Amino acid sequence: xxxxxxxxxxxxxxxxxxxxxxxxxxxxxxxxxxxxxxxxxxxxxxxxxxxxxxxxxxxxxxxxxxxxxxxxxxxxxxxxxxxxxxxxxxxxxxxxxxxxxxxxxxxxxxxxxxxxxxxxxxxxxxxx
Length: 128
Fold this sequence. Notes:
By secondary structure, this protein is an alpha/beta fold. The protein has helices spanning 12-23, 80-89; strands spanning 6-9, 26-32, 38-47, 50-58, 72-76, 93-100, 106-111, 117-121. It is built from 2 helices and 8 strands.
């Protein structure tokens, strides 16, 4: 079973540039519409043996039942400090500097250009 969060952006290309540059995602697929804009994109987050995908799409004029606004996405990794350093070097807005949580995770968080929060940590839900 897989879960694939889907995010809508006013500027999907800028969001993709941010996610690849600041956080280290990689582009898996980019599909464009007749206007040349991003219609659908898939970005991968590699975490050791695991890979997760987020789906990126444009906001649509006139409303979209699947565009529910801003969200928080949690990414797992072994070295949140390295992700924080990368995001800082890319000029990302840091919303939480690296910190050791009382539940044993080391975490940090950044905001993307459209206000979504990307939290990064060592805690891996569902694993002992």
